[in-house]
Amino acid sequence: MKHAFAGALHLAFHRRAERFNGGRSTGLKPLHFDDQQQPLGVEKPSEFTWNQLLGFDACVQCGRCEAMCPAFAAGQPLNPKKLIQDMVVGLAGGSDAAYAGSPYPGKPVGEHQGSPFASIIAREGQGLLDAETLWSCTTCRACVEECPMMIEHVDAIVDMRRHLTLERGQTPNKGAEVIDNLIATDNPNGFNPASRMNWAADLSLPVLSDVKRTDVLLWMGDGAFDMRNQRSLRALVKILRAAKVDFAVLGNEERDSGDVARRLGDEATFQSLAKRNIATLAQYSFRTIVTCDPHSFHVLKNEYGDFGGQYVVYHHTTYINHLRQTGKLKFTPYKGGSVTYHDPCYLGRYNGEYDAPRDLLKAAGIQLIEMERSGFRSRCCGGGGGAPITDIPGKQRIPDMRMEDIRQTSAEVVAVGCPQCTAMLEGVVDPRPEVLDIAEILAKQLVDPEATA
Ligand code: SF4
Ligand code: SF4
After folding, report:
1. Ligand 2 pocket, residue 11 CB under 6 Å
2. For labelling, which of 10, 80, 105, 413 has a CA lying 20 to 30 Å from the CA of 322?
3. Residue ranges of the domains in the chain?
4. Which of 387, 447, 441, 400 is nearest to 417 (CA)?
């Protein structure tokens, strides 16, 4: 009865009421730095909002989140079901000894304890959680999507990460270096910001500081610094030009979107990047933003609004599909090897776009072989949430597990729509299927309109 009561109240006062009636709400809630009363993240169970606490108590321990969690399956020390149960233990006070389910991999049950007003991650001794449990999460939202009680695991994990990063400066492994780079150079790898356009040196791309207005702003993302992703960007440019789209880029004025800083808990750096990008965008006139990076897509579409940046944003597959549907693009039939498609978490579960990539591949004459875990049940590649940066070890690597899903289809090519997915899947050692962005596949299948004429 306790769950029925807590569950009813949790659903009645859910912090993301937009999720009811099929709606979607996936942007993180901002910290308000001018509010002196608001803690910088969550240190103690009592610092969660009252409706988050109700949510934890509503957990019926069905284990559906655990079954879907890529970090748990990889043997990293995270289990979303136990994490929620640990928050319940913290709320009541006591130890986790009575927990009867699967532990965090590698961490025996009964050694952790907490109370409402004690640090969840103890500064000394054993607390309720170990920090590496929080840093194992890829923020893929598979747990949230599966949870019958609509519990928001990712919000809770990022709230606790905010405390570790902002109050304690304890972002692990390369986290601190990435944040320092973002602060110093506006990109996570510390590249010279003036080299952001090097990938397009021969393409004569229109730059907004010159042209001032355009129909489509092509948001390059930090993939502009990466030689592998530059191939996807160049393919996208070829497609936009074939459809005679009026587009331009921000050039060296573009900065990192702030996605990784925010997922690592550095809300201050995220807000600084977001506000400066918004100020830059405000100088120019454009109708839509198009990007081949689902992380930038999500942040620009769903998270900049809290800071005054309201934009119409499309993932490149959605936009190319629109061009196809309006007769601006045609494709010759694909003659290559068999193809499967990997849904990126930040395109699918975060933004509900499952159809456009599939429609496009079909329009190019490709008969997709679907993986067992696809669509909203797609398994994460391991690249989100700063997980490759915090790099918490497990028994196996998440991209290897995803590649095994891919291999089971016997497909020779895996189509992707995300620079992170490309990097993670291409990091799997050969022999393995070829990894190609959908733009790369389509750019080779374009019908040359002039030749046709
Ligand atoms: S968001 Fe993904 S990785 Fe994180 S706890 Fe949920 S299922 Fe696991
Ligand atoms: S899916 Fe939801 S209700 Fe089920 S165990 Fe996980 S958090 Fe609890």
Report:
1. no
2. 413
3. 2-167, 175-324, 330-450
4. 441
The residue assigned the tokens 């895996």 is: 414
What stretch of H or E contains 268? Answer: helix 267-281
Nearest CA-CA partner of 380 in 147, 140, 146, 154:
140
In whole angstroms, give the CA distance from residue 3 to residue 184: 48
Cis peptide before 294, with omega less than 30 degrees from 0? Answer: no
Q: Which CATH number fits domain 2-167: 1.10.3470, 1.10.1060, 2.60.40, 1.10.357?
A: 1.10.1060
pTM of the prediction?
0.96
Is there a contact between 406 and 368 (Cβ–Cβ < 8 Å)? no
Unique residue bearing structure tokens 């040196």: 201
194 lines ligand 2 (CB under 6 A): no
Please give the distance, rounded to the nearest whole angstrom, from the Cα atom of residue 122 to the centre of ligand 1: 22
Collect the ranges in the chain with pLDDT lower than 70: 449-453
CB distance 65 to ligand 2 below 6 Å: yes
* pLDDT at 79 (0 to 100): 98
Atom 8 of ligand 1, nearest CA residue: 69
pLDDT score, position 2 = 73
**287 touches 245 (CB < 8 A):** no
Q: Could you tell me if the CB of 147 is within 6 A of ligand 2?
A: yes
At 82 the pLDDT is 98
Question: What's residue 453's pLDDT?
Answer: 46
Q: How far is CA 6 from CA 20, 156, 167, 328, in A?
A: 18, 18, 31, 53
* Separation between Cα atoms, residue 139 and residue 389, nearest integer Å: 13
Size of the chain in residues: 453
Beta bridge partners of 437: 416
pLDDT tens string 222-263: 999 999 999 999 999 999 999 999 999 999 999 999 999 999
DSSP state, residue 113: E
Side chain identity at residue 330, one-letter code = K
CA angle 72, 25, 419 (to 5 degrees): 60
Q: Contact at 8 Å (CB) between 317 and 342? A: no
